[in-house]
Specification:
With 513 residues, this protein is of the alpha+beta class. The chain has 5 domains: 30 residues, no CATH class; 90 residues, no CATH class; 93 residues, no CATH class; 121 residues, C2 domain (Immunoglobulin-like, Sandwich), CATH 2.60.40.150; 133 residues, C2 domain (Immunoglobulin-like, Sandwich). The protein has 11 helices and 22 strands. The strands form 7 sheets. The protein has a 4-stranded antiparallel beta sheet with strand order 11-8-7-14, with no helix packed on it. Strand 9 and strand 10 form a beta hairpin. Helix 1 runs antiparallel to helix 2 and helix 6 runs antiparallel to helix 10. The longest helix has 21 residues. The protein is globular and about 85 Å long. About 2% of the residues have low confidence.
Amino acid sequence: MAFHPAKCTTVHMTRRRTTLPYEYQLHGQKLQEVTQAKYLGVTLTKDLKWNTHIANITTKANRALGFARRNIKLSNKKVKAAAYKALVRPILEYASPVWDPHTAEDSASLEKVQRRAARWVSHRFRQTSSVNNMLEDLVWPTLESRRRRARLTTFYKVHHDLVAVKSNHAPKPSPPKCTTRQIHALSYEIPHSRTAYRQKTFFPRTIPEWNRLPVETATAPSLASFQQLVRQASVKSIEEENLGSLNFSLDLDPETNILTVHIIQARNLVPRDFSGTADPYVKVSLLPDQRSASAQSKTHRKTVNPVFDEEFIFELKDSGMARAVLEILVFDYDQFSQDECIGCVKTPLRSLDLSEHLEMWKGIQAYEKDTDKDRDVGDVMFSLSYLPSAERLTVVVVKARNLKHPETSKDTSLDPYVKVAVMAGSKKAKKKKTATWHNTNNPVWNEALVFNLARDQLHAISLEVSVFHDNKLGNDERLGKVRLSSESSGEEKAHWQDVVRERSASARWHKLT
């Protein structure tokens, strides 16, 4: 079969800044050079990035969602959900193991389509309505977790030779010296990656997740059973909100009712900012009676794989054994502000056999602290402005009023300061702080904090303004915070929209929560 030169193009794919020009010819005719091309439905660009493809499929999915909304107006929730799953979601997931994004911006643009669909299916369009609650009611997992399942399914096919992979590109088996419930014999060697871009491609990204699969999942006899196990467990040993895993052991002395908790190590902790490392430590307590008597480990510097090797002793009451819960909180030490909780492990003791030494690995889950949403801790005033020509976001922290400590009913004097953080998802991309005022509940700062941000980043990031009390005897305590983004509601959303629309700066009061 002959190719027509007018219907053929060339794409020079490289990430180098300088390239050698070369002209390709077919039948004596020069082929047109383009910056991107679509191959089997996937848009490939010359810089090997996926943002163009993701922009294309989100646009197409939004059009399909609009078509469904125009033609399915009076149907019930079940019909609308089926329409979304049949017409919209396949567009967002086609060939996802190839282009699964690793940046928060690209991942968020995909999730926005599903969140918009959840509002339509649930018929709840108020700004105060929680989309997260809608997704839980619909039992829709995030698209990110579904893409992770698709990558694991594809790797299962590679492992069992159900798809063709050239020998020079195939991963190399690397069985461990000994196998446990957490380490199975079907492990593979993780390919070496010189660049972060290479590290986020299919094999370097999927093999660590495959190696951490439970034994019964990795050794599933068929593709259908493997998919079923992954779907049922949501790959909890891998996911756990991607916050890492904790290794610890328990010993109970039946005569004295003394429980010894040995915190051994943690693996693959997720840092709370973009430094790539953390300064982790743990707090151990028994709920519900001994939260105030929590014990704390030493802080380990600049590591996401700390080895603690510390023991903590608790006395169990005979009547409290049935309802006792072991809580282990993993924190990231912050020298300049309040330490951030990476996540937690909660284990009900009644579900364990403590008649002998027990060692286990547990996934670290996100920690949600019980808070009173109606508490009044004060207000903060600040203005926002964005200068497109300089790509600069300016936050002017003006003042605060009626500041109160959230755990103290008395109007004690505080030493407040403000920290402003640019957030990409749950991680801090940039942060700056004001000076500290002493012995006041109504400080006046009038300080400008400047952040360099590209114009297209405004839609992907959020701004977190936090007021802290400078505690000279320990860690600084956060009094409250305000978060502004396109997903916010009320006054916060209106203020953020003014920034995106490049309107003149105006100072506004915001309630701290």
